Amino acid sequence: MNLLYISISGNTKSFAQRMKELSIKKHNEAIDNPIIQIKEITDNSVLRQESEPFVVCVPTYLEGGNGIDNGDQEILTEAMRDYIAYKDNATLCLGIIGSGNKNFNLQYCLTAKQYAEQFSVPFLADFELRGLPNEIEQIYSILSSLSSN
C-alpha cells in the first residue's frame, strides 16, 4: 500500500513515518499485514504517473475565514492536488486522509474533504496534528482493508 503525503509543518510527515513503522511491525507479526510505503510530495516533486494504487494524506492550510462561505481557498498544498490530477493518477487514488487542528472548527480537514469531492474518492479518516497512536492504529486498519480488496 502506498501513502502519498504533503507536509508543511512536519506534522503529516511524522504521521506518515509512524504509519510506516507501525506497518512494518504489523507485517512482522503477520505476513498478510501490508507494509505502508510512504512518498512525500513537495512543490519540487516531478509530476509522474503512478503505477500502483495509493492513498493521500493532506493537511489543511486555508486562507482565513470560516471554511464554509469564506476562507475555503487552499494554500500551500496545491502540489498534491496537481500530482493527483496528473495524467491518470486520480484513477489510482483509493481515498484521502485529512489532518488538521480541531481548533479551526469547520475548517478542520476541509482540504482533504475538497480533494475527496474533486477526485470522487472517499474521505477515509482524519487525525489531529501529528496523530495519536490509537488514530494511527485505526487508520492502519482502514488501509489494510483497502489493500486486501
From TrEMBL:
It comes from the Bacteria. The keyword Oxidoreductase applies. The keyword Oxidoreductase applies. Residues 1-149 form the Flavodoxin-like domain. Keywords: Oxidoreductase. Pfam families: Flavodoxin_NdrI. GO terms for molecular function: FMN binding; oxidoreductase activity, acting on NAD(P)H; ribonucleoside-diphosphate reductase activity, thioredoxin disulfide as acceptor. It is an enzyme of class 1 (oxidoreductase). Its EC number is 1.17.4.1. NCBIfam families: PRK02551.1 (NF002714). This is Putative nrdI protein. It comes from Enterococcus italicus (strain DSM 15952 / CCUG 50447 / LMG 22039 / TP 1.5). The lineage of its organism: Bacteria, Bacillati, Bacillota, Bacilli, Lactobacillales. The gene is nrdI.
